[in-house]
Amino acid sequence: xxxxxxxxxxxxxxxxxxxxxxxxxxxxxxxxxxxxxxxxxxxxxxxxxxxxxxxxxxxxxxxxxxxxxxxxxxxxxxxxxxxxxxxxxxxxxxxxxxxxxxxxxxxxxxxxxxxxxxxxxxxxxxxxxxxxxxxxxxxxxxxxxxxxxxxxxxxxxxxxxxxxxxxxxxxxxxxxxxxxxxxxxxxxxxxxxxxxxxxxxxxxxxxxxxxxxxxxxxxxxxxxxxxxxxxxxxxxxxxxxxxxxxxxxxxxxxxxxxxxxxxxxxxxxxxxxxxxxxxxxxxxxxxxxxxxxxxxxxxxx
Length: 301
Prior knowledge:
Blueprint: H1 10-14, H2 17-36, H3 45-52, E1 56-62, H4 66-79, E2 84-89, H5 94-106, E3 110-113, H6 124-143, E4 147-151, E5 155-157, E6 172-179, E7 182-193, H7 194-197, E8 236-240, E9 251-255, E10 258-260, H8 271-282, H9 288-297
Parallel strand pairs: 1-2, 1-4, 2-3
Antiparallel strand pairs: 4-7, 5-10, 6-7, 8-9, 9-10
Helix pairs in contact: 3-6, 4-5, 8-9
């Protein structure tokens, strides 16, 4: 999705950016197309296609955090209205993949292990986007669910929520992000009515050349035709996560019924302390055995 020529500056033209960005965009698309043709490592696409047909499906991309996935699924099982929950495993580590599969099974969720991702270790946003696109092309589109949505694995439900209810009178909704005059639904929380989007060339990838992060690839095919004011308002409240730390150093986000752990942009030096704070915040909502085990493993400083 290259920029319009009118969006380039004289300096851009002098540095041949319209040409170089067009070449890079074409190369990225060829990588995506090649990846879409690969089979899942778990080789269970057909099972998932049958399971989601005509149903409301939530999917989360797991990435090397079995503990977070365990809490995410436990809270989804308690609070989130859905027919089918799917774990899309994009992890590199074999031990994490084994743990994720077991956690998904114990939580009653379906599990699929993606092919080796060409963007992992190179670009986290592109890795996430190509994972969502693989799921769309190989499972969701042929499976034809009633509705589907993506929720990040570091989002934790803390109150009852029906994420499909807003789709009764709209094609899609989620958490909005803006990039200049363009907007898109954040890939960490976005839901779609299948029949209203199934014939569109959906692209859950990104386009940094116009400032669009993961999920922004749907700007041209979906979002530019829709008034963002027609979507439900979903306020985001940033909460400092640790005493004595600024929100920039360590924060959570309250996104309506969900608590977002927030990985990107926070200081990694506080990661362990922040996870401990999260576990204790979520403990009253978790199954008692899980809460006891995790709070013991994460004592507060």
